Amino acid sequence: MKPDEEILGLLAEATAAAPPAALGPAVVVAATATRPSGRAIDALGGGKRAAAKVAFLQTIDEFKALLADAPGSAIVEPYGWSVTQLVAHLLEIDLYFGRQLGLWAHDIDDSLEDDHLAMTEAAVRGSVRADFDSMVAKWLEVSAAVCAHVESLGPDQLAEPIKFHMLDTRVSTMLVVRVFEVWTHLEDLSRTLRRDPPPLDAERLHLMTTTAVRAIPFGMLLGNVDGGDRTARLVLTGLGGGVWHQPLYVGSNAGEPAVTIVADALEFCRLAAQRILPADLDAEIEGPTDLAIDVLRGASVFAA
Amino acid sequence: MPLRRAKLSAPSPSSLSTDGVDSSTTIAIVPLVNTVSPSGPTDGSLVARIAVGDDRALQMIYERYSPLVYGLARRVTASTAHAEEITQEVFVYLWQNPDRFDAERGTLRAFLGAVTHRRSVDEVRRDTRRTAREDRVGGDVTNLDLLEVGDGLERSQTAERVRAAVSSLPQQQREAVMLAYFGGCTFRQVAERLGIPEGTAKSRLRLGLTKLGALLEGLT
């Protein structure tokens, strides 16, 4: 038996009538006057530099809390590292990040600087038999110094340029990219520990989705795909989602979308972090499928 | 962290070029199967898109449901001007409050129908010209002939089946349903119009809706 509201909804079908043609556009104008197109109901003005700082510190804190209960020998996928090796990887990245922020000197193999995983490979390999507690203590010390510095940064300093993995960006953007990285490791570790990861709030997730979408042209370029002068329209639904008209070539301007991709925001972040494949993303495609595949492959740009 | 495990020979973003990318970065193309179905995105998907600010999704929802919203508002208020205002208000409300719709609890048609009906009844009850309105519709909102198709719109199979179901109701129940739903009447007003106790009006309406529910079973 149908509930009353369903019956009454069907009753309304009996009186359906075409509204005046001009009403449709007017309705959209009226609606977007109350909430602009592209702004999610739960987005709190994502992209603010201060929000990037808060998001970074919060994510680090969450990872530290999870690490407190983790056994050092447990295996974390997808790389098959032990938790100790994962911490060794993070230690190496934070030493490098601190160097790029001007906190200290740290030697790296310059030929590996552009490769996030390769540049920590030796440290990860060398930590196979390392003492877990000592490794965690070292990382906590370095991470605390990085976090204290980040916490002290004002708006102007957050806007300053920084080079990271040989890419020129701004400190605030770099912080969001690192949120991506730590959150991904946090999800990996949670899976190992059979726990639910702490939920992402809308603002943090919106920062991540924005950064992931903006990175697509770089990802396509790295994948040897020429985005030309085309534009993709990304509609990421759910918490932290939004709508973006993203040019597919670095530095070009958005035009009429050649393809629209609709997907869940959190799943899109997992795609960006290479934890799922484009084929595994539950996406609706409007437009050429080949181009959509190129865009989604381009979106898989972050390694964590 | 920010780059996939790829070797870049290009020294900086400003000089990134396709020549500078190692061929090992190529990923096998895996066909995607989740393209939009011929019937288009589901209502739930479109409302989720509205929640993140996709005005195209609002347009698609409008195309699907504006005849239902506009037609119901026009039928209840007997005013094209009110119907236009209410139609705009209903879709702006959806744009502002997409989280009020829960696809697991009911259809978008029922949700929009309920919002439209509530807003239309409010309008009718405020309208001091109600007498004139009743004069325009002949004073008999129980007349099934008033369930006419709007201008330029073909009657759908669903509408035909609904109309047939309403026609098949016993007259007393049909009158109660028509007055309460399309007339925007309260139980007391239904009772007064039909010259029956309020409790009887309630039970006739309940019986009518129950029967309609059975007759319309299977309609989506």
Could you explain the architecture of this structure?
The complex is a heterodimer of chains A (304) and B (220). By secondary structure, chain A is α+β, with helices and mostly antiparallel strands. Chain A has helices spanning 4-13, 23-34, 49-67, 83-100, 118-126, 132-152, 155-158, 171-192, 202-214, 216-222, 265-272, 289-299, and strands at 75-76, 81-82, 161-164, 167-170, 231-237, 242-247, 257-264, 284-286. A 4-stranded mixed beta sheet of chain A has the order 6-5-7-8. Chain A has a two-stranded antiparallel ribbon with strand order 1-2. The longest helix of chain A has 22 residues, at 171-192. The relative contact order of chain A is 0.12. The mean pLDDT of chain A is 90. Chain B has helices spanning 43-51, 55-77, 80-96, 108-126, 130-136, 157-168, 171-182, 187-194, 198-215. With 220 residues, chain B is mainly alpha-helical. Chain B is 57% helix and 0% strand. In chain B, helix 2 crosses helix 4 (108-126) and helix 7 crosses helix 8 (187-194). Chain B starts with 42 loop residues before the first helix and ends in a 5-residue tail after the last helix. At the A-B interface, helix 1, helix 2, helix 8, helix 10 and strand 5 of A face helix 1, helix 2, helix 3, helix 4 and helix 6 of B.
